[in-house]
Amino acid sequence: MSEPVTIKVDGKEFEVRPGELLIKAAEDHGTYIPRFCWHNRMKPVGMCRMCLVEVDTGRGPMMVTACTNEVVDGMTVDTQNEAVQKAQEAVLEFLLANHPLDCPVCDKGGECPLQDQAMAYGPGESRFVEIKRTFEKPIPISELVLLDRERCILCARCTRFSEEISGDPLIEFQDRGNKTEVNTFPDHPFSSYFSGNTVQICPVGALTAKPYRFRARPWDLHMVESSSFFDTAHPRLSIHVSQNEILRLVGIDSEPVNHSWLSDKDRFGFEHVRSENRLDTPLVRRGGELEPVSWSEALDMVGNRLGLIVEESGGDSIAVIGGASGTNEDAYALSRFARTVLQTNNVDATMGEGPSAHFLAASIDRGLIADVDDADTVLVWGPDLKETHPTLYLRVRRAAQELGVNLVVIHPRVTGLDDRATATLRYRPGGGHELLSDLSDGSHEQVTSLISGKVVAIVGQASLADDPGLAESVAAFVREKAGTPRIIPLANRANIYGALDMGLAPDLLPGRVAYGPEAAPEPWGEIPAKRGLDTPGMLDALSEEKIRAVLLVGADPVGNSHEPELASDALDLAEYVVSIDTFLNDSNHYADVILPAAGFSEKDGTITNLEGRVQKVNKIIPAPGQGRPDWSILDDLSTVMGKSMGLGSPETIAKEVAAVAPAYQGISWDLLEWDARDGAVVPLDGEQPLTHIPVRAKGTKAPSAELLLHQGRVMYDDGVRLRNCHYLSRLAPGPVAHIHPDEAKRLGAREGVAVRVVTSKGEGEFAARIDEGTPEGVVFVPLHQPGAARLGTDPVVRVTVVT
Amino acid sequence: MSMWSQETQNRAKEIISRYPEKRSAVMPLLYLAMAEEGHLTDEGMEEVADWVDLTPAQVRSVASFYTMYKRERTGQYLVSCCTSISCMLLGGDDVLHAIEDESGVPHGETDAEGLLSVEHVECIGACGGAVAVQVNYELIEGVTPEKARELVRWLKKARPESVNTDEMQELFGGVKSFDWGIKEEDAAVGPYPAFQPLGTIKSAGDS
Question: Going by C-beta distance under 8 Å and a sequence separation of 6 or more, which residues neighbour residue A324?
């Protein structure tokens, strides 16, 4: 590190890092210089001129923009002398020359940087008498964002965001001079997964989000900090509420996680919370119909029945599926309830997807999101991060684009990061292990040579055709090659990492402890010794009628299954099904009792993200009707069943977790609310209670068929929460099949025509999408699309044009 | 799948190969798109975007910034009259009015036949030879209102396949800013600059 330099701002002297921008250095030391275009997380442009200050570096005073000038030793700066004030007044007079005075009907009114700074630094009146420019208003630039061009002050924040940060520059300045405007290309909407961020950073009311437009005034809102339940990186955000209704979410600048950015799913996905389809009362199936009952009746019914089944057939006859959608406190309660009250080890929050629970929860050298910033190479061999892990996507993109980090992307088709990759490799769906052996044998030298030095390996299941264990094998390969890489194992589902840390897998106990009867936490007492089943195992056991009862907790095994008939037949055979959930879904269709759960923003607690960072999430609105948090439902059930857990409150659960879960020692709500607002990575002392060393597995080859099916998750799908979002539900691509232009020619398919896709496990009609990003010999079908047939995991596929 | 002719595609490849970054070729390729279709269409800009790996919005941002990229149909001859300071002082406005009057085409418009477009432009770098006029960006210096009328009549009557700066200077020009040196043999074939890599040029040797 080079020596700090001394600068003097408005008579105050302080030391700052050399090379820092003056505007940032001054702000960090208590002097706010007004600005519109400059944003802490983007490169400066000096467009708005609002940050003019008088600087003297020994050559006499001159007026410069504080956002484009770096500090130098001995610099003296005046941010408010007469000349600067005059400059600020002039800049504002010009900015307001065309800006409408529609603040009373503008959504930004009350929290508008232009409004505020015009009051603080403006001349108070204008010499311009000319007619202001007007535009057709508002114009939709995407499904989610509206643009009122006459309000725009051309700061280029939104256009820079789209080019520098999100990598989809679909909005740009158009025309010139007095006619300059921000706009899209005709019929090429700003269909970015990150469009909502432009609304957040717009310093005027030019960009507004449809879900918030004309809904509230900032002074009507109250707010609380929390984290998103969609992206497993858990980007930090603030929930803004009026009259018990969430009106918007705003990203918080958390250095280790999301730099203030949110994907549109994380930003607008809150709409499901107020959906009229939310479950709001306990329901019991009587004569095939669901009837509302009181909580006491429902809990008695469920407790007695489950108790009877445990007594008659033992805990092994009960399956517990889910638990990744709640808080850590909910997950802990479920883990304890399953092991001690139900006496079963059949618990699985992963739903049988992705890498093994041990690898996800306790991989050696677990990486942090921020590790990608100073890596030599980032290897991404997993899902398309842009589609499934947007926070990580933005961070990796920035590392490759701005920080000079080498990026290697290995995926069956083009991904959102490929345009910034140093090297990319494609492989046939199901052929991951083959490629891995080739790489170990020394082929693809230009790729393998990059895997050295400080490597971050981001691994997960890239294609449904891939063996879920491939991710772990990749991690093992990188360890062979590069010593001690940082490993980030990827999984989906809101709080899956927290659920696993709380022991919601057959082979784990709370706090990253390998399962064993002797390892039971002290307050738990005796726990069953028999090894439990994972989700596929439980479904098999159900089919064989070895399991009598199922407890689904925020879980939809039918909706998630690639062969839904297997799951639905299994649930159909179950004698008794209880579901704790926020919505009706494809699985609790089979439930005998459905208990309404509290969801996002309706309960306090903690959650753990993909790097093992524990963050506090907060309640700000009540759950609809009689909805209750999972932990409290389970606590009452335990009482009915005569084995009361006595959990008390989520905070007492958090204290119990800190006491009994080794990895969570030292974690308290107090810490997370004050000293560690950005969250704390567990274990705090770095001493992993359980270390899983990735193992290289022997894999199979890709089938030799000419055409193979690649299925992967995309941002918008038919998930029950998304389905209940007014705006986001329209964004799912639906049943589509991506085909390379040459492949399409062979098949005789054109853009949009119906094609029939047939596999050994399913078939259905899909609309053809001609796509150069999908290699020849591969058909790409986005997973879980509304109205789309399920095709199973076998990649051998036949495609014909429907005539 | 390109909608351009094979020849234009070859030219695009050749131009792109001159730059270390594809996107640097955006401006010459916009002229190619104009030459291909006569003016710059949305489809033309999308095509350019495909060639240089930019988004259509970025390409349109460039295209709409510069006035020489015509996004509306232009006549076979684009007559541009300079009205910036030097030309204005020496009667640029009179020359413009003469052109407008003789052609019947006001500034910024094109005649019904699609033969002539007229525009006044900012400085075209010929202040020493004011008043300066261009036909398809081929320069004529020292133009008077009378000569301007002759120029318009000639374009309408002769309808030359291409226009050449030296030839027109001789016929319609006056005082030149400096000695232009050896004769320029090449001629412009449409309302875009004559430039070899763009193929918008008719050489003296061509038949």
Answer: A331, A349, A350, A351, A493, A494, A495, A496, A498, A499, A504, A554, A555
Q: Distances from the Cα of A498 to the Cαs of A226, A459, A613, in angstroms?
A: 15, 19, 9
- Asked whether residue A513 falls in the same domain as residue A659, the answer is yes
Q: Is the pLDDT of residue B207 over 50?
A: no
- Amino acid (1-letter code) at residue A572: D
Question: Token pair of B119, please?
Answer: 């525009």
Nearest Cα residue in chain A from B42: A186
Q: Do B55 and A175 touch (CB under 8 A)?
A: no
Among A33, A49, A80, identify where a domain stops: A80
Cβ distance B64 to A170 less than 8 Å, yes or no, reads: no
| Cβ separation A172–B58 shorter than 8 A | yes
pLDDT at position B13 over 90: yes
Whether A630 is in a domain gets the answer yes
The domain of A745 spans 708-801
Spatial strand order in the sheet of A236-242: A222-227, A236-242, A245-251
Per-residue pLDDT tens over the stretch A87-108: 999 999 999 999 999 999 999 9
pTM of the model: 0.94
| A185/B1 touch (CB, cutoff 8 Å), yes or no | no
Predicted pLDDT of residue A353: 87
Other Cβ atoms less than 10 A from the Cβ of A531: the count is 12
Q: pLDDT for A635-676, tens place per residue?
A: 999 999 999 999 999 999 999 999 999 999 999 999 999 999
Contact B60 A169 (CB under 8 A): no
| Total domains present in chain A | 4
B57 contacts on A by Cβ (under 8 Å): 169-172, 174, 183-185, 188
Superfamily of domain B6-65: NADH-quinone oxidoreductase subunit E (1.10.10.1590)
Task: Decide if A179 is inside a domain.
Answer: no
CATH of the domain at A637: 3.40.50.740
Q: Which of B1, B57, B66 sits opposite A188 (nearest CB)?
A: B57
Report the Cα A12 to chain-centroid distance in Å.
43
In a shared domain, residues A446 and A528: no
Sign, CA torsion B189/B191/B196/B199: negative
| CATH number, domain B77-196 | 3.40.30.10
* Sheet of strand A377-381: strand arrangement: A423-425, A406-410, A377-381, A455-459, A486-489
Q: Which residues in chain A have their CB less than 8 angstroms from residue B54's CB? A: 169
Specify if A154 maps to a domain: no
Q: Which residues contact A695 (CB under 8 A, 6 or more apart)?
A: A472, A473, A476
Taking 3-state DSSP, the helix, strand and coil percentages for chain A, each rounded to the nearest 5, stand at 30, 20, 50
Sites in chain A below the pLDDT cut of 50: none
Same domain, A428 and A445: yes
Tokens of A581: 């959930």
Same-domain status, A582 and A510: yes
Count of residues for chain A?
Answer: 803
| Cβ pair A169:B55 closer than 8 A | yes
Sign of the torsion formed by the C-alpha atoms of B123, B129, B130 and B136:
negative
CATH code of residue A762: 2.40.40.20
Selected residues 53-112 of chain B with any CB under 8 Å from a CB in chain A: 53-61, 64-66
Q: A650 and A524, same structural domain?
A: yes
Alpha-carbon dihedral B10, B11, B15, B17, rounded to 10 degrees: 10
CA dihedral A27, A91, A148, B49 (to 10 degrees): -80
Query: What is the distance between the alpha carbons of residues A660 and A333, in angstroms, rounded to a whole number?
Result: 13
